[in-house]
Amino acid sequence: MVDARRPVDAAAVFGGLAEIAEQLATGAGGLPALQRTVDVTVEATSAAGAAFIEYGRDSGRVVAAAAALDWSLGRPVDLIHPTLRGLLQYGSRVREFPVSLLGTVGGEHLRGRGLTRFVAAEVNAGKTAVGVLVGGYHDAEGTAGPDERAALGFLAGLVGLQYTLGRGLPIHVDAPSVDPVAEPFALLDAEHVVRTWNPAAALLTARSSESAIGEPWPFPLPTGTETVEHRMACGTWIEIRAATVPGGTDISVSFRARADQSSDGRDLFIALTGHELRTPITVIRGYADTLVEHWDSLDDGSRREAIYVVGQRARELSRLVDRLLNAVGDEAIPGDASALLPFDLVDTLAAALDDLSPEQRRTLTVELPQTLPKALGERATLATILAEFVTNAGKYSLNWVEAVLTAGADAQTVWFRVADRGIGIRPEHVERAFERFWQLEIGDQRTRGGVGLGLYLVRRIVERQHGWVSLRPRQGGGTVAEVRLPRADADTHGEA
Question: What are the Histidine kinase domain coordinates in residue numbering (predicted)?
Answer without folding.
Answer: 272-489
